[in-house]
Amino acid sequence: MGNKKNNFKRNIPLYVMLCIPLAFFILFKYVPMVGTIVAFKKYNIFKGIWASEWVGFKNFEEAFKAKEFATAIKNTLILNIGGLLINFPFPIVTAILLSEMRYKKVKKFTETILYIPHFLSMVVIAGIMYQVFGPRGMVNSAITAMGFQAVPFMTNTTSWRIIYWGSGIWSGLGYGMIIYLAAIAGVNTELYDAAYIDGAGRWKRIWHVTLPQIKPTIVTMTIMNVGKILSISFERPLLLGNVTVKGAAQVISTYVYSVGLQAGRYDFAAAVGLFQSVVCVCMVLIANKIAKKLGEEGIM
Prior knowledge:
Low-confidence stretches: none
Order of helices and strands: HHEEHHHHHHHHHHHHH
Helix content: over 70%
Number of strands: 2
Distance between the termini: 31 Å
CATH architecture of the largest domain: Orthogonal Bundle
Strand content: under 5%
Largest sheet: 2 strands, antiparallel
Strand order of the largest sheet: 1-2
CATH topology of the largest domain: MetI-like fold
C-alpha cells in the first residue's frame, strides 16, 4: 500500500500532464456526441436540441429512401476501396527500397521529397491537379501542341477517379512510408545476418525477413483503413470535383454538407453522419476479428 502511495506521489506531474489531453478529448470529442440526439428529432433551430420534436428513426428511413444518399454511398465505396487497393503497396515498397539504400544522403533527400506533399493543403494539391490535368493544363497543352485533341481528364468519370486515387498516393505516400520505415528499423539485424549466412540474397532477405517482421504493422494499418471504408475526407472530393463529374464525386461527406449546411436539414445530416460512424466502427471490429482469426494480433 505504501509503495502505491509513493508511486502515485512520484508520478503526480505525469498525471497532471495527462489531464490536459483527457480534458481535450472530453470537451471536444465526447461532449459533442450529445448532439447526435438531433438525428432522432425534427430539429428546430429556434427551439433547440432538447425542445425539438422526437421523430425516432424517421430521418434514417428518409435517408435510406433517398436516391442521392444511395449514390453517395456507392461513390464513397468506389473511391475508398479503389484507394485502399491501389494505395496499399506503395508505402510498403517505398519504405523497403529506402531501407535498402546504402547512401544516407540520397536516402534522406528522397525521404524529404516524398514526405513534403503530406504537409501541403488539399487546396494546393487540388490546384496542382487542375494545373496539370485541367482543360488548359500542362498535359493538355502538350497534347494540343503536338496537334492532337485535348483530353477531358477532369470531366470524364473514369479519368477523374484515376486522378483522385493518384493524388491520394502522392499526398499520402510520405506518411505511410515513415510508419513502415519505423517498423523496419525495429527489425533485429541478427535475422538479416543469419539469412545472409544461409545464402539468402537481398530479395530473399526482404521476402523472408523484412516482410514477416513488419506484417503486424501492415495488418494494423489495413484494419485502420478498412475501418474508414465508409468515411471519406470532405476537402478532396469537393475541391477536385466539378459539375460534370458530380455523379462520381458526390460522396457521403459532401452529401452531408449539401443537405446539412446548404439546405438546413441538420437533423437529416446528423442521421446520415451517425449511420456513417456506426458502420465505420463495425468495420473496424469486423476487420480486427478477421485478423485475430488469421493469427494476427489486431489492434485490440
